[in-house]
Amino acid sequence: MDTKLIRNFSIIAHIDHGKSTLADRMLEISGAVDKRDMRAQLLDDMDLERERGITIKAHAVTIYHEYKGDRYQLNLIDTPGHVDFNYEVEKSLQACEGAVLLVDASQGVEAQTVANAYLAIEQDMEILPVLNKVDLAHARPDEIAEEIENSLAIEATDALHISAKTGQGVLEVLDRVIERIPAPGGDAANPLRALIFDAVYDEYRGVIVYLRLFDGTLKRRDLVRMLGTETDYEAIEIGRFQPKMVKTEVLTAGEVGYLVSNIKRLGDVRVGDTLTLAKGPKVAMLAGYQEPRHMVFADFYPTSPGDYETLRDALETLSLSDSSLSYFPETSDALGFGFRCGFLGLLHMEIIGQRLEREFDLDMIQTAPSVTYRIQNHDGSFTDITSPGNLPERDRFAALLEPIARATMMIPSEYIGALMAISNDHRGIFIRQEFLSTTRVQLTYDIPLAEIIYDFYDKLKSATRGYGTLNYEVLEYREDDLVKMRLLVNNEDVDALSSICHSTQAQNRGRAILKKLRKEIPRHMFEVRLQAAIGSKIIARESIAALRKDVTAKCYGGDISRKRKLLEKQKKGKRRMRQVGNVDIPQKAFLAVLGGDEK
Fold it and tell me: pLDDT-derived band of residue 94, with 50, 70 and 90 as boundaries?
């Protein structure tokens, strides 16, 4: 197909601003899907995506649109809005020349709107601002257009006013994509160069590779080479997403499509790699992507030791469809054998946990999440620590560093004071404050990542009554006065409950955690002692009283020594029981560590 008649674009926006709904309307208007097959969130094919109403994986689709007598091929990539899936947005934008920046006409510019817009600006893309949900009674499109100009410096006076729900203005969006977004460069006569921007695993067909062709032509049965891994494969099947996979014989420069080639493992395909012909001339590699950085780590342990193999197989299966998940074996004195998993953020962790429980029917204990710390050794080298339990004794290293995140918060202006107080309480350093309009302000702070995943987001939402939004990116590692806080249950060190925190917060945090554990751990036949310690110093203590039987009930009079004798006998039994008895710690107790302050 002539590249002048092709347009590649993404829809980018904050969570819940209507990206998937707009994609649905575009599919409907272009006739890509029959009315009888149409359903909400058509491109979101995962059960969790449909239930939560969010996009987790980017989805590509090819639609056709008539404009001024010509038939154009529009390759659309619907992207996620949540900060945890920024990696998906970055991958998608690399395959496009332009982006539709969708902004809710009632909510305005939010934190992730800014983050995604900057991703597009960095790649020098054409950005089309579009105001959605103008049919709502409280929509304020003129104010929001001003916010876009103030916060992003993008001309928005002629931004289209649409309603993705009703379909109002969606045809004009398709027309404007053709008018404003440039046609892809590249030449079909040049040697083949295609960017692998995603890959998914299908249990019947192996790995399905998502491609964007920059130069040349790809035909079915061609022998292709992946330059990064230097492996050759035969293109058994190629095609486009319309939105279902439709086979074709040829893909040309500028097009987006897929390739199936009997690739058995997802690890054999590197996202960001360049695909070319195995027997063609040498070509330069295309700019790829950085590897996803895991920011949050948590342990998964099967409640039944016999489920260990099942958990390992389940994690391997999930990692086939999610390249940003990492896992490696871990052992705990308290919980046995399990896996330490790396995630892009808290939502990513939550979704993986839910998929393990639902899709594989696993009953697991999940430890509280922690971030990656870095220790500076005495010889000047650095070592990353992904679990507080792996932190060596204080005299074994020179300094302990923690990740610092640049947090950008969009809030209504009346909540500035409350949010500044919360940020300062979480060891935040003020960077700047910008008014986007008379009612909305953007605050920027540098906050330790551990504070953000502990309880910062919950407090931000509470303080702003749900109107505040947060986006963050990790800047660097900084040294601080950090200590390892151990939790002991009946004098036994529970490594899965240990955490790293600032020395000034250790005592308060230790007390808060013990109070929560006291509520979550059920009473036993003996007294259970809970302690928080730094080194050999106990900084907080709580006790769970023993369940007691009234052994003196049958003594209805007589000498008091009879009752004392029975109570002494009971006390001896309790003492012996405490020495041999095991304390049952439920799943909720492990997550109580994450729950924040009592107040």
Answer: confident
Query: Going along 18-148, which residue ranges are E strands?
Result: 59-67, 70-78, 98-104, 126-132
CATH 1.10.260.40 for domain 3-180: no
- pLDDT tens per residue across span 261-317: 888 776 677 777 888 888 878 888 777 666 667 778 888 888 888 888 999 988 887
Q: Where are the beta strands (DSSP E) in 40-121?
A: 59-67, 70-78, 98-104
d(CA 327, CA 560): 62
Q: To which residue do tokens 């925190």 refer?
A: 501
Give me the residue label for tokens 């006790």. 543
As a whole number of angstroms, the distance between CA 497 and CA 494 comes to 6
Most confident of 82-86, 325-329, 343-347, 556-560: 325-329
The CATH classification number of 374-479 equals 3.30.70.240
Paired with 532 in beta bridges are 487, 540
User: What tokens does 326 get?
Assistant: 């990492």
Count CB atoms within 10 A of the CB of residue 221: 10
Report domain extents, the chain: 3-180, 193-277, 296-366, 374-479, 483-592
H helix runs in 408-521, sequence order: 416-425, 449-451, 457-463, 506-520
Are the C-beta atoms of 115 and 81 separated by less than 8 Å?
no
**CATH class of the domain whose range is 193-277:** mainly beta
What is the pLDDT of the chain when averaged over all its residues?
Answer: 81
**How many Å apart are CA 76 and CA 59, to the nearest integer?**
8
CA dihedral 512, 517, 523, 527 (to 10 degrees): -70
The C-alpha atoms of residue 498 and residue 492 are separated, in whole angstroms, by: 12
Distance CA 311, CA 287 (A): 36
Give the orientation angle of helix 19-29 with respect to helix 170-180, to 10 degrees.
90
31 vs 68, more confident: 68
pLDDT band (50, 70, 90) for residue 422: very high
Hey, what amino acid is at 97?
A: E
Cis peptide before 243 (omega within 30 of 0): yes
Sign of CA dihedral 259, 263, 265, 270: negative
- 570: part of which helix (H) or strand (E)? helix 560-580
